[in-house]
């Protein structure tokens, strides 16, 4: 038997725990942003990979004064060729006692370098002799000063990123510095969208009796923001056979064959207990197992979570716009996180800036921030979108209500 009118927090936990992480895939480092790492990653190169200068100046060996070495000029080369030629020269160079060579911050220093004398602490005379400037002291630089030694951050074989990490730009830069070109990540969940309902206009101002379709054109972007990959969008209207075709296992064409390999189906509309309920009928006909039949939350009470006969998961969203938008945070977000191998997204906290009366259920209320406190939007009925469009986040208000100054849980929007 499915859970009915399940508590909001428990519904999120159940959605997250109802699936197993997807199998890994290997992607280039520059395409791994926002993905979950499937396995520990070890460095394949030392970091840094060579001894390098931390500051502009001279790489020196011995106590000085120093003879400054210079590479032979390479006539006819471009500026870039000259830089590369000098790098090759330094790579093959070994400093003897009381020798020096000019280096730039971040650049390779030659073998035998004891330290780097910072540029404003040294001076070179006409004979090419480097001495310390008057203000530099008599015995600097100290051994190892201003030199970054190879491998000081990581050695080959060191674990530098652990499985389960949600990869950020900083992680990817670090992976690149460790010599990695690809990463094994958990596959992004593939999602099919199915839009039900009659009288949905795709453009302009709808005539009386019809409504503008505000979910179909934009729900895919919402799914992508939550980490999913949309592989198909279908408008089935009130055609029960078309709806059943999207939920069944008998693929009729190449598009359905492709989508049958997906992970999640998200439908909109037709979930109410006192409406035509086309989604419930299609689920029964398709042999689906309903896991959640209603969540104790406003808006979005008639939410459904089901497992289709072929193993795909289905989330049925209500047709009211705000109910559908908050329903995405209630069930779709934790479901996609579970499939992606990520932790259940936990609510944050914010201080309330106005009283909220008691209600029948947990309420999800768009809010805006004003001087660090959350002001509930007046535009929070199930059919309203203005409050959600203006929101800095969504308050999770308990059934008993809350008073000004209380700290409430809040959901961060994925944009």
What report would you give on this structure?
With 415 residues, the chain is of the alpha/beta class. It has 4 domains: 3-22 and 188-339, MoaB/Mog-like domain (Molybdenum Cofactor Biosythetic Enzyme, Chain A, 3-Layer(aba) Sandwich), CATH 3.40.980.10; 26-47 and 153-186, Molybdopterin biosynthesis moea protein, domain 2 (Alpha-Beta Complex), CATH 3.90.105.10; 52-148, Molybdopterin biosynthesis moea protein, domain 3 (Molybdopterin biosynthesis moeA protein, domain 3); 348-411, MoeA, C-terminal, domain IV (Beta-clip, Beta Barrel). The chain has helices at 8-17, 79-91, 169-177, 219-225, 240-247, 254-259, 278-285, 321-339, 386-390; strands spanning 3-7, 24-28, 41-42, 52-53, 57-61, 66-68, 99-103, 115-118, 122-124, 129-132, 147-148, 159-161, 182-186, 190-196, 200-201, 211-212, 229-237, 264-268, 289-298, 304-307, 313-317, 348-352, 362-370, 373-376, 393-397, 407-411. The strands form 6 sheets. The protein has a 6-stranded mixed β-sheet with strand order 8-5-7-6-10-9, with no helix packed on it. A 5-stranded mixed barrel has the order 22-24-23-25-26. A two-stranded antiparallel ribbon has the order 2-13. The mean pLDDT is 89.
Topology:
Layout: E1 3-7, H1 8-17, E2 24-28, E3 41-42, E4 52-53, E5 57-61, E6 66-68, H2 79-91, E7 99-103, E8 115-118, E9 122-124, E10 129-132, E11 147-148, E12 159-161, H3 169-177, E13 182-186, E14 190-196, E15 200-201, E16 211-212, H4 219-225, E17 229-237, H5 240-247, H6 254-259, E18 264-268, H7 278-285, E19 289-298, E20 304-307, E21 313-317, H8 321-339, E22 348-352, E23 362-370, E24 373-376, H9 386-390, E25 393-397, E26 407-411
Parallel strand pairs: 1-19, 6-7, 14-17, 14-18, 15-16, 18-21, 19-23, 22-24
Antiparallel strand pairs: 2-13, 3-12, 4-11, 5-7, 5-8, 6-10, 9-10, 19-20, 20-21, 22-26, 23-24, 23-25, 25-26
Helix pairs in contact: 1-8, 5-7
């Amino acid at each position: 038997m499915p859970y009915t009118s399940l508590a909001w927090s428990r519904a999120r936990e159940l959605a997250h725990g109802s699936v197993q992480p997807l199998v890994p895939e290997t992607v280039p480092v520059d395409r791994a942003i926002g993905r979950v790492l499937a396995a520990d990653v070890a460095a394949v190169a030392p970091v840094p990979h060579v001894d390098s200068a931390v500051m502009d100046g001279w790489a020196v060996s011995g106590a000085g004064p120093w003879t400054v070495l210079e590479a032979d000029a390479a006539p006819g080369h471009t500026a870039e060729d000259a830089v590369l030629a000098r790098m090759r020269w330094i790579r093959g160079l070994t400093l003897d006692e009381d020798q020096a060579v000019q280096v730039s911050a971040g650049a390779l220093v030659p073998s035998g370098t004891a330290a780097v004398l910072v540029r404003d602490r040294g001076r070179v005379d006409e004979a090419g002799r480097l001495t310390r400037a008057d203000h530099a002291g008599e015995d600097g630089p100290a051994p190892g000063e201003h030199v970054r030694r190879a491998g000081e951050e990581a050695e080959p074989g060191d674990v530098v990123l652990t499985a389960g990490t949600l990869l950020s730009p900083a992680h990817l830069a670090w992976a690149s510095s460790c010599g990695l070109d690809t990463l094994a990540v958990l596959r992004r969940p593939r999602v099919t969208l199915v839009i039900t309902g009659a009288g949905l206009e795709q453009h302009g101002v709808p005539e009386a009796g019809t409504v503008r379709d505000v979910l179909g054109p934009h729900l895919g972007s919402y799914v992508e923001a939550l980490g999913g990959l949309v592989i198909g969008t279908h408008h089935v209207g009130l055609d029960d056979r078309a709806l059943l075709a999207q939920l069944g296992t008998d693929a009729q064409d190449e598009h359905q064959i492709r989508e049958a390999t997906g992970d999640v189906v998200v439908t909109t509309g037709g979930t109410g207990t006192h409406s035509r309920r086309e989604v419930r009928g299609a689920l029964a006909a398709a042999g689906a197992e309903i896991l959640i039949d209603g969540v104790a939350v406003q808006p979005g009470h008639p939410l459904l979570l089901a497992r289709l006969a072929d193993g795909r998961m289905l989330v049925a969203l209500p047709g009211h716009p705000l109910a559908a938008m908050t329903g995405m945070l209630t069930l779709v977000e934790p479901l996609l996180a579970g499939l992606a191998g990520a932790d259940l997204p936990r609510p944050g906290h914010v201080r309330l800036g106005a009283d909220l009366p008691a209600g029948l259920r947990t309420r999800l209320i768009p809010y805006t921030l004003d001087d660090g406190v959350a002001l509930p939007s007046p535009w929070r009925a199930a059919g309203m979108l203005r409050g959600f469009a203006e929101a800095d986040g969504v308050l999770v208000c308990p059934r008993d209500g809350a008073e000004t100054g209380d700290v409430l849980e809040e959901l961060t929007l994925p944009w």
